[in-house]
Amino acid sequence: MEDPYSFCEICRINHTSGKKHSFSSKHTARLKTILKKFGSKISDSKKKLLNPVISKASSELSAVNVWCYMCSVEVKRHVADHHAIIMDAGLLEHLATSEHAKKVHQFFWENRLSKEQKKNYLVNEEGLDSFKEALKNALACYENEEETQLKKQAMKIKAIECTQTNVVNQKEDDLQITTQSEQQSGPSSGHSSGSWGNSSSGIKPSHSKVQTEGVVYSDGLTFIGRSNCLPDGNVHTGAVPPWLRADDGEPTQTKPIGPTEQDFQEHLKKERKRKLNPARVGANFDRTSTNNPDWMPSFGRVWNSGRRLQSKQQYQRETGNWKKRKTMNGHHSGKY
Known about the structure:
The protein is of the alpha+beta class. Helices cover 39% and strands 10% of the residues. Strands 3-7-6 form a three-stranded antiparallel β-sheet, covered by helices on one side. A two-stranded antiparallel ribbon has the order 1-2.
């Protein structure tokens, strides 16, 4: 038994209409959109048959693919050649194959298309041969241009290197001249090459906050030893940094830097309360206020099943503040 369903590559659905499906409005609209989209790509590629375009190699261009709706296959649009990419060469080669011509004929027959449009989706062998001939000249011109660009870049690099070399040589000459002048106008004969600043040469170090280990004088050279700026050490030896030390006359801070554990717990408590409903019962209750001994809640007692008024009277009797009100006739009433 034959399968009543047929799959349409254009609409991407299964149908039971048979050949009538090719004349449906949905299929016709979809087919028109596909032919327009695919035909624009083919027309752009055919423009490069006589004037091939070559660009620099890149991963983005080499990964561009085109879906052929006639053959139902994916074709590489560009072809990579060494360090260059030939634009639309892969698509043109596919359009010139015999298998593509057969698929185009079958596609037009199944979708009831006009045969006059068939040539728009094919490339003949003569056109492909002319493309290959023009491609040879284009590749030669491209290689010459690339070689010229490389030579220009090499000239720029050489010029930069020469400039850097001249600058270095000039600095070395200036340094040599400075050294010779210092040697000629160096220290007097009373200064020995191994004498320190506190020796009998008469040169004494200045009494500043920075105390050096010593100064050595030689032929045009001066050596300054390590300096001990802080007798208590520095941040690298584990001492307290200067910006954390107490000023003169101020007590040393014993409070730890940063928030304490108690502050952290209070912060967590506030964060938990922040997530609660602000309109809940008791949200605005002031728990820090003090109450006098006569305070009582506005609700009845737990073990009392009567009214709130009775709870109030019972509370007032216990505290001794309950008094009977006088009625309009001047008699006392036991009721409140």
